[in-house]
User: Fold TetR family transcriptional regulator from Maribellus comscasis.
Amino acid sequence: MSPRSAKQFNDIRKQKTELIMETALELFAEKGFHATSISQIAKKAGISKGLTYNYFESKKEILDELIQHGFNTIFDSLDLNKDGIVTKEEFIHFIRHSFSLVRENLQHWKLFFSLLVQPHVAETFSKEYKIKGEPVFLMMYNFIKSQGSNDPEGDLMAISAMIEGAFLYFVAAPDVFPMDIMEEKVINACFKIINN
Amino acid sequence: MSPRSAKQFNDIRKQKTELIMETALELFAEKGFHATSISQIAKKAGISKGLTYNYFESKKEILDELIQHGFNTIFDSLDLNKDGIVTKEEFIHFIRHSFSLVRENLQHWKLFFSLLVQPHVAETFSKEYKIKGEPVFLMMYNFIKSQGSNDPEGDLMAISAMIEGAFLYFVAAPDVFPMDIMEEKVINACFKIINN
Amino acid sequence: MSPRSAKQFNDIRKQKTELIMETALELFAEKGFHATSISQIAKKAGISKGLTYNYFESKKEILDELIQHGFNTIFDSLDLNKDGIVTKEEFIHFIRHSFSLVRENLQHWKLFFSLLVQPHVAETFSKEYKIKGEPVFLMMYNFIKSQGSNDPEGDLMAISAMIEGAFLYFVAAPDVFPMDIMEEKVINACFKIINN
Amino acid sequence: MSPRSAKQFNDIRKQKTELIMETALELFAEKGFHATSISQIAKKAGISKGLTYNYFESKKEILDELIQHGFNTIFDSLDLNKDGIVTKEEFIHFIRHSFSLVRENLQHWKLFFSLLVQPHVAETFSKEYKIKGEPVFLMMYNFIKSQGSNDPEGDLMAISAMIEGAFLYFVAAPDVFPMDIMEEKVINACFKIINN
DNA sequence: GATGAATGAGTATTCATTCAT
DNA sequence: CATGAATGAATACTCATTCAT
Assistant:
């Protein structure tokens, strides 16, 4: 009875939803949420303004979905080895993996950093960010302690700051430092900090 | 009927200009440039919309002046001891002073981080930021080298990232780590990184 | 694979057409023509937007059909006893029947009153309403005259206004007066007016 | 200091506010609230769309102000002679005055009837309308009783309906009956109803 | 210098309607 | 017959900017 099968409709929906989200992410990341208009998104995506509202209730909802989706892609892939013991190799792998995540999701990270700095845009973002970050801090803390640090709290702060800072350089000023070298140096520095 | 003296006019101009800039800084820092309207600035400053345009050509110009002014207050106070030798005490003082600058100019830093992440807002900002940063990197590089580091470039990267990251935590998530302790730990970590 | 018979198709058509009209009537009556969207009608009717256009050329056409249909249900059932003499009993029955019509077609009446007041929505409505009303006025006039009124024109005005007003209360403010009592009082008042 | 005096600004505001309200009333009355756009109002008023929002927060606020203003002009002028005894002359004067109010505020009444029929447009209107109407009903009831009616409640219903109906004809179909004659006949009918 | 009325282009959003399937 | 994706024009509303006073 129905003309296109349910699957066909689903495929179209999925494809268009992704198209809109990808396009919006590019623009939000580059210009910011408020400086990006629905017209621009639609134009860049090659669709009509109206269609956008066929898939999203509002511009804000696009952002929220992007945040949700970003959190998932970024944090779900982290193997925090909860409860277990983290070996040196695993810790290094975790750091390298995190750098890869930034490399491969640059726009998500750009968006995230901008939301972090201007929390009024998406009220829930900063909170969620901290919640998602906590297990990471915990894993790192346990590892640092297990390595015999005599100031695990202090080392955690220094290391967290260093990694966050490296990511920020990555995202905002990748030409200041060569990022592959930065990665090595950060890993080295972690152990210098811990083993003293 | 008596006309105001030139000095009186100048005083008024200066005072109003500062009022507008301060108010704009608060709003830009908190909500972002695009999400802040001239009406909001005028309302919060207790003046009329029109008056804003008596002192600034456009909303963009307010931002540009804020950037300029921010760069000046932040970087002018840095004593980089160019050409001379930086002692350990001077380096520590430099770091502490930098942390103080963030503490005391939180809104400027908020604005700066947001501009850093979304360069389309103020085209020249990122470039300028790098230019202003270069002497700082140079000073740090020289200091690290003078301390006998066997990888001064690498240590510079790690230390720069750590400081930048600490500032970001300061600005965006000051409740995650106690900032006075963070300051100590960063200083300690600097030397752990260098002396290895 | 067996094709549906012409009858089956016709049944479906009729059934769907009625479904759409009923749903539209509810919404038009409650919220008004302009405040009701095709989406809302389709959603409430449990069909797709597109299907609506399979049965009606436009939103306006749904309204026009509703008007037509309303006129028919309302006025066709009136036995005006044209040319013949209307007895007192027949007149009373006519009034009671009219009240019943309002009671049973409340939404139609709501829609009609709103169209009456805002004639721009359906250009032809007011005219048609007057045309359909004329034989009613004539019947009433003849009856009033036959009852020996010494000012039949004047009495017609008063009685017409009273009935119209009672219907309006019915439709717009049924809680102000108990409608079954109102019906009795209106009938009584008619004769008070005529017999003086 | 200020260019235009406070009074000048006030005058402009008052004048423009009135202009917008008058224009909006015309259009709301003729086409309905939802079918009237801000563009149409602005165009007809000879001002820009933006200016409308300098004076009113929203289209809805214009309507609300019109309702408020309408209630005031219509009901404030009614002398209900509360607590006192209403003479026959006073009652007649009240009816005549009410007819005049409709005559002179035709558009307000059009708007009001449309809001009465479609209460979703302005949630509070119907309620308010009933509240404002109550003292009128009370005054009429007392008068009817004082005239020796043996069914004051019933007579009130009939008379209220008649007046409301007459107003509706006035507003929606003034060419069906000559309104000055209608006025006389309604007054007459009132007494026919009461005195039986 | 100061005001706020006025504008017009822009923004998010809605909606009647079309059409491929 | 039926679906819902797609469009484009329209809608309510915002906002940087201008300007007469």
